[in-house]
Amino acid sequence: MIAIRTKREIELLRAANVIVADVLVSLAEKVEPGVTTIELDILADRLIREAGGVPSFKGYHGYPNSTCISVDEVIIHGIPGKRALKEGEIVSIDVGVNYKGYFGDAALSVPCGNVDAKRRRLMEVTERALANGLAAARAGNYLRDVSRAIQQTVEPAGFTIVKNFVGHGIGTEMHEDPQIPNFDTGDRGPRLKEGMVMAIEPMVNLGTERVKLLKDGWTATTADGAPSAHFEHSIVVRDGLPEILSMSPRRSWGLPSAA
Ligand code: MF3
Ligand code: CO
Fold it and tell me: Is there a domain that residue 200 lies in?
C-alpha cells in the first residue's frame, strides 16, 4: 500500500526534508582533509535538534549515529567514527530527520579536496542518474520508469549500479512502500499518483557492483575497494510532476541540467 499524502502532510514532510537538506549542506561545507566523520555527525545531531527535528537514523534497528558518512569505498551506512577524511576521497553524507512525526531523508556525495577525474565523473553520473530518475517520477508513469531512467544513465557511462539497496516510499515512517530499485527488475511496478512521496537514491560504483558488509553489521563497502557515490532526494508527485522536498536555498543537487 502506497500512501497518498494530504496537502498538510506534504508541508510537514517538506519541513522535515528542508532540515535534512540544510544539514547536508552544512556538513558538505565542513568536508576537508583531517576532519573526522564523527565530528561531522556531532555537528549534524546539534543542527537537527536546533531546527526542531529528531535524528531519525539514531536507534533505527540499533543504528548508533545521526548520520551515515560513507567514505570512498564505503557505499552506504558508514558509521561515523575516528576515520579522518583524506584529500581525494569521495564523502557521501546521508541524513534523516523526524519532524512532528514526518520523515525527511536525503544524501549527497562531495569531494574531499581535489579528486581524480574518474571519481569526479562517478559523482557527476550518479547525480545525473538521480536527476533523471526523479524526472521520471510523474503521475501516470510506472515505478519502473524511474528505475530505468537511473539505469540508462549509469550503465552507458561505464559504471555499475548497486542492487542490494533501494530507494523507498517515505512519510510517517522512514521506509514505506514502494521499494525503488535503481535498475529494471522486469516488473513494471505501481503507477505513480498525485500525493505519493518517495526517496530516490542511486548508489553507483566505479568497479564491481558487488557489496561487502563489514562486521559491524552496517557498513556496506564495494567488494573490490573501488569508490562509490550516492545521491538522494525525497520528492512528492504534485500537479502530476516530481517536486523535490529536500531543497536547501544554499545549494542544490540532482536537478535536471540546464543544457
Ligand atoms: N537513507 C538511508 C536509507 O534510506 C539511511 C538509513 S540509515 C539507518 O536507508 F541507519 F537509519 F538505517
Ligand atoms: Co533513504
Answer: yes
Nearest to 19 by CA among 119, 106, 132: 106
Q: Does any domain span residue 204? A: yes
Radius of gyration of the CA atoms of the chain, in A: 17
Q: Which ligand is nearest to the CA of 201?
A: 2
Cα 165 off chain centre by? 11
The CATH number given to whatever domain includes residue 23 is: 3.90.230.10
How many other β-carbons are positioned within 10 Å of the β-carbon of residue 243?
15
CB of 5 shorter than 6 A to ligand 1 = no
* CA–CA distance, 81 with 107 (Å, rounded to integer): 18
The whole-number pLDDT of residue 259 equals: 55
Query: How do residues 207-216 score in pLDDT, each as one tens digit?
Result: 999 999 999 9
Domain hosting residue 116, numbered range = 7-244
Identify the nearest ligand to the CA of 217 by its number.
1
| Residue 54: Cβ within 10 Å count | 18
Q: Which atom of ligand 1 is nearest to the CA of 68?
A: 7
CB 79 near ligand 1, within 6 Å: no
Q: Domain for residue 258, yes or no?
A: no
Structural domain count of the chain: 1
Q: Is residue 226 part of a domain?
A: yes
- CA of 69 from ligand 2 middle (Å) equals 13
Q: What pLDDT does residue 258 have? A: 62
Closest ligand to the CA of 234: 2
Threshold 0.90, pTM exceeds: yes
* Minimum-distance ligand 1 atom for the alpha carbon of 96: 1
Distance 235 CA to ligand 2 centre (A): 11
Q: Which residues of the chain fall short of a pLDDT of 50? A: none
59 close to ligand 1 (CB < 6 Angstrom)? no
